[in-house]
């Protein structure tokens, strides 16, 4: 694709045209040289090709692919949408293969699109994802802006392709996927090294150098990391790996809590955020409670979407999307602060067999009332009153633990029924184990082996 452009970012000696006229073996050797050379370059090319390796061992097959398949396609005639959509389709298909583990990096696109539709990015704003995976939130924001603003000035086009989107990804292979994903949509192909849209790094260890207008992210799940982040002094006697983050307000090694603190520290005044969080962040005590109270004291925490289980790669993990804005204290005091909660947890979802659909989220987006949240109300006439309810923020803060695992009506009854069923199943399993153990002891006693079991306990245990 670069070779079809008037000004290619790829040096001529490593361009697509440099493969012309080579034998299969020559092409195979040259391809390895090209990958290594491009991987050493700075900028977008270096990030895409860093540590890239040729996995096609048969020179004849590589030549067939280069000359007869890829080489015969007029890539320049395909729009960025077509190329980008094809690439994203491959990423989504790979994510649905739970054996590969790719699903942990892929947030369902319909969920991403719904979140972006609720947050409504604006031209001139900077959108950031500090755990960007394959770049879904950034691309959805890009598509939303192009759909809402079909005619852009040259300056707006330049901002959209070079400065509007920022992502950080820890895993190199996934950062490569994200960079290619954005590149195929026309983002980041003409930027300087200082303006790369995707950076391969640990977000939590990166100091905040510039605030952003919007943060949309689904941080990696997992309770405790190997690093503790603190706003205070390091303890020199501690064996822990401690990183100083002065803008954080509580010391913890919990990944989700640190990402939440990180997101808050990134927001510019009047900034908006939506972050996917597991259930434990909503109700745990200790550092989690401190963070929740601080968040309510400094931000407008206005919406919580409770997601179905089985939505992500980690089966059984219950997740939510928390929406909040960084608004001035005077604005927060002028209006009564409430948190609206939408329950989508009863929806039966699985990553592969029954994926989340756009229609599953349409009612939530309508209830969210993007751009006019003061118009929110319980839409009982449309049958969603049981799913959509508001809570007074003052009551939440005054309540024990400042908990956000808020439930009502059928949700409470359903949860109590589920807990009872789980306890009954657990009791039945324990009873079966005890019955089996008693039968085993009885059979050994009747055969006269009980004494030897006591005398030679170690050998019997090893045999079992």
Report low-confidence residues grouped into runs of 5 or more.
98-103, 413-419, 449-464
Q: Strand order across the biggest sheet?
A: 3-2-1-4-8-10-9-11-12
Number of helices: 17
Per DSSP E runs of 2 or more residues, the count of β-strands stands at 12
Sheet having the most strands: 9 strands, mixed
Helix-strand makeup class: alpha/beta
**pLDDT average, as an integer?**
81
Strand content: 5-15%
So what's the overall shape? globular
Order of helices and strands: HHHHHEHHEHEEEEEHEHHEEHEHEHHHH
How many angstroms separate the termini? 63 Å
The percent of residues in helical segments reads 40-55%
Cα radius of gyration in angstroms: 27 Å
Kindly describe this structure.
It is a single chain. The protein is α/β, with parallel strands linked by helices and 464 residues long. The protein is 43% helix and 15% strand. The protein contains 17 helices and twelve strands. The strands form two sheets. It has a nine-stranded mixed β-sheet, sandwiched between helices. Strand 2, helix 8 and strand 3 (198-200) form a beta-alpha-beta unit. Helix 1 packs across helix 3 (59-70) and helix 2 (43-49) packs across helix 8. Mean pLDDT is 81; it is low at 98-103, 413-419 and 449-464.
């Amino acid at each position: 694709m670069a070779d079809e452009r008037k000004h290619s970012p790829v040096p001529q000696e490593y361009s697509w045209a440099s493969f012309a006229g080579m034998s299969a073996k020559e092409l195979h050797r040259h391809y390895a040289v090209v990958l290594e050379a491009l991987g050493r370059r700075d900028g977008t090319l270096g990030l895409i090709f860093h540590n890239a390796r040729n996995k096609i061992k048969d020179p004849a097959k590589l030549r067939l692919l280069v000359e007869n398949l890829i080489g015969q396609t007029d890539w320049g005639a395909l729009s960025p949408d077509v190329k980008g959509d094809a690439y994203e389709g491959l990423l989504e298909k790979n994510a649905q293969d739970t054996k590969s583990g790719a699903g942990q990096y892929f947030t369902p696109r319909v969920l991403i699109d719904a979140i972006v539709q609720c947050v409504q990015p604006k031209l001139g704003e900077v959108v950031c994802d500090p755990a960007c995976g394959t770049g879904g939130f950034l691309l959805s924001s890009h598509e939303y802006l192009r759909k809402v603003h079909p005619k852009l000035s040259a300056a707006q086009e330049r901002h959209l392709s070079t400065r509007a989107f920022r992502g950080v990804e820890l895993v190199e292979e996934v950062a490569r996927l994200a960079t290619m994903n954005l590149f195929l949509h026309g983002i980041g192909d003409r930027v300087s090294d200082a303006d790369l849209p995707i950076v391969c790094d640990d977000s939590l260890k990166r100091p905040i150098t510039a605030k952003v207008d919007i943060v949309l992210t689904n941080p990696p799940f997992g309770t405790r990391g190997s690093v503790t982040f603190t706003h205070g002094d390091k303890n020199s006697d501690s064996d822990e790996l401690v990183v100083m983050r002065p803008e954080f307000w509580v010391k913890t090694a919990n990944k989700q809590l640190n990402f939440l603190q990180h997101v808050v520290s990134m927001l510019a005044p009047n900034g908006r955020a939506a972050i996917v969080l597991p259930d434990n962040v909503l109700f745990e005590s200790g550092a989690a409670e401190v963070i929740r109270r601080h968040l309510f004291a400094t931000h407008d925490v206005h919406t919580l979407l409770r997601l179905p289980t089985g939505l992500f790669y980690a089966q059984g993990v219950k997740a939510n999307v928390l929406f909040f804005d960084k608004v001035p204290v005077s604005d927060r005091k002028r209006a009564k602060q409430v948190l609206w909660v939408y329950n989508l947890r009863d929806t039966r979802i699985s990553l592969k067999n029954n994926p989340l659909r756009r229609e599953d989220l349409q009612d939530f987006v309508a209830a969210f009332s993007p751009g006019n949240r003061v118009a929110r109300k319980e839409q009982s006439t449309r049958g969603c009153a049981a799913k959509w309810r508001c809570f007074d923020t003052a009551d939440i803060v005054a309540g024990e633990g400042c908990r956000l695992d808020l439930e009502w009506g059928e949700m409470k009854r359903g949860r109590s029924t589920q807990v009872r069923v789980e306890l009954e199943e657990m009791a039945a399993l324990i009873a079966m184990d005890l019955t089996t153990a008693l039968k085993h002891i009885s059979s050994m006693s009747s055969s006269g082996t009980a004494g030897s079991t006591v005398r030679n306990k170690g050998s019997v245990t090893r045999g079992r």
